[in-house]
Structure formats: C-alpha cells, structure tokens
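Dear support,

I submitted the protein below through the web form. The confirmation email said the job was done, but the results page showed an empty box. After a refresh the structure appeared. I'm attaching both so you can tell me whether what I see now is the final result or a partial one.
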Amino acid sequence: MSTTTKYTAHLVKLLSGDVPQSISLLDWEYLIRIARDASVLPRMAYALDTDGDSLPEYARTHLISAKYHAKLLAQQVQFEATEFKRILTKFHHEDVYYLKGAAYTLSGCDAGIGRVFSDIDMLVSKENLREIEARLSVYAWFSQPNDDYDDMYYRQWAHEIPPLKHSGRGTILDVHHNLVPLISGKAPEITDFTEGARTLACGARVLAPEAMILHSAVHLFYQEEYHHGFRDLSDLHLLFSEFGTQQTFWDALFILAQKTGFGLELALALRYTTSLFDTPVPSTVLQKSQVWLPSRPKVMVYDWVYKRVLQPHHKLCDVLGLTLANMMALVRGHWIKMPVHILLMHTAAKGYRNVLKWVAGKGVNKPDSAKNNAPPGP
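What the results page shows now:
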C-alpha cells in the first residue's frame, strides 16, 4: 500500500506484536493517540507484552488501561447476552444471532480479543420483529426519539429498526433483520447466512466462520463512513488468519459469496487485508477472487479510495487525499444502498430538513439528543 503513512505502518506492526526499533517516546505518544482514535488500542495492548519491561512506562500505563476497558466491554456483552436469552429465547424460542464485535467477543475468536464497540448488534427474524421490539420495551429497551421520516427510513427501507437504548444501563442495541438495506435490492436470503450457525457455551448464537467473515466484508464495503475502517479491516485480517488455515473454509466462503452475490465485497476484503496487513491468504485464493473484481480502471479508483479511507483517520497520520477519498466513499456507500430515484428523494428530504433546522434552530420535530441516531444521509 504505497500511500501508507509511517504511523500506519508502525501501528500494523504493533498490532502483530512487533515493536519497531525506531519508535521514540514521542512516537509512542502519537501512536497511542492514533490507536485510541481508531478503536484498536486494546487490541494493540493484547498483542504486546505489557507485563515485562520492554515497553516505556508511559506506553505500558495506557496499554494496561486499554485492556481493562476491553475487559469491561466483554463483561457487558456477556451480561446482555444472558439477559437476551432470558427475555427473548426463553419466551419466544427466537433464534438470536450476534454480529460483528459482539459476535467476535462472545465466540472468543482472535478478532474478539481487545475488540471495542459502541453497541451490540443482533440478527432476528423479520416476521417476529414487532413482537421482539415490544418484548424488549417491557424490559426498558426503548428507541430514541426520531422524526417521522427517520422512522419510515428504518422500518421500510433499512435492514434494522431504530437503535434501542436501555434506560438504566445505557447500552445501545441494534436489532437487524437482514444484513444490507432492503431498498438496495441486494438483501440476501438471510437463511443463507444463518445456516450452520454455532451455539456457544454461554448459549449465544453466532454465524458460522464463513458467514461471519462475509458479513464483515459486506458491512465494511457497504458503509458510507470509514472512521473505523482500519479497525474493521483489522477484524478481517484476524478472521482470515485464524480460519483460513483450512481449505474447507475457503471453499465454503467462496460458495456463500457466489450464492449471495457478495463476491465483490469478498474480493475487496482479500485485496486490502493482504495489502495493508500482509494477511496470509493462499495465492490460489487471491487469484480465484479476482474474477469478482471490476474492470482495471474501476479497480484503480477503488484502490485510490480504499487505500486511504482504510487507514487511521487521525490527523497525525496525514493521509494524502483523505478528505476527497472519504467523500467518494460516502457517495458510493449511498449509491449502492439505494436506487437512483430513492437516493434523490432521500437526499432532497435530508437537505430540506437540514435547512429547516438551520433556519429554525435545534428541535425541528426531533430533539437534539437523538441526532446521533438518525439514519445516514448525504
């Protein structure tokens, strides 16, 4: 990755447990700030030896603190998973599947060690969605205030309901019924992903490794905002490294990607994990995935954008062209999620509402406290 900055390169090494000899105390300060901003500081802490004296005291103090933070999050998700089993599975016999950070942490895979996340993602059946939402409300899980347009966006076009927040503990829960927005026309048959799901010792269910990884790739390349792109690409690097030692895994992964139409997302995930993290992917697998890549000019555009947005976004990294790359990724993220006529209507609606709020001030049919829960918009 020719655009990789010095601090990005150092961070990649540190995440593998390798401390570059050239790191100064000032570099340590900068790298800790960058890693914290990119949500990989606890992951870096677990990769390094924080018990010995090989690290500067300043770095060791921050890394040990980051470990405690990750442990607290792991305890939180374990507690919430137990609660959800009690209030959902027991009474409704509903299959609840955990996704992304919660799934990595609960399953104990390498990507879950030191993984931090701001919410818990679960997948349930669309048929039981209203009943599940009602059941959760009995136990103090409530959606945050949204205006009528936002609520319609979630319930008609999206793949999830509005985020729920526990009124006592403050935990945020995202309840999904699919993996990509329904309005995109690309939402898969969800049973293709849940087939072969695993039940963990704690009773929680997670997707099979190939489905977990393909969803991680889809989530990464279907989003519009890439502030956590480096962390998410690190997830994929660890998942590929852990499960990719068996050919049967690669066979299952390619079959699932072909069946669900997400071959491009898998090919991009393989392309950029091997480029930035030097992920140990067999050459035959990389060559096979190239069939899903678009024409050479389009691949060059992808490379220009993603080799920038998938690096840490901290200003200390000083990634050349990052602002433009972020804008291009934002446009692409909306473009692939919505048909053109819906995208134009959505853009107009969001623009009109933003103008109203600018003219009238805060609180145009929507409390300021709910602004962070609005669906993404241009």
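Response: this is the final, complete result; the empty box was a page-load delay. The longest helix spans residues 57-92.
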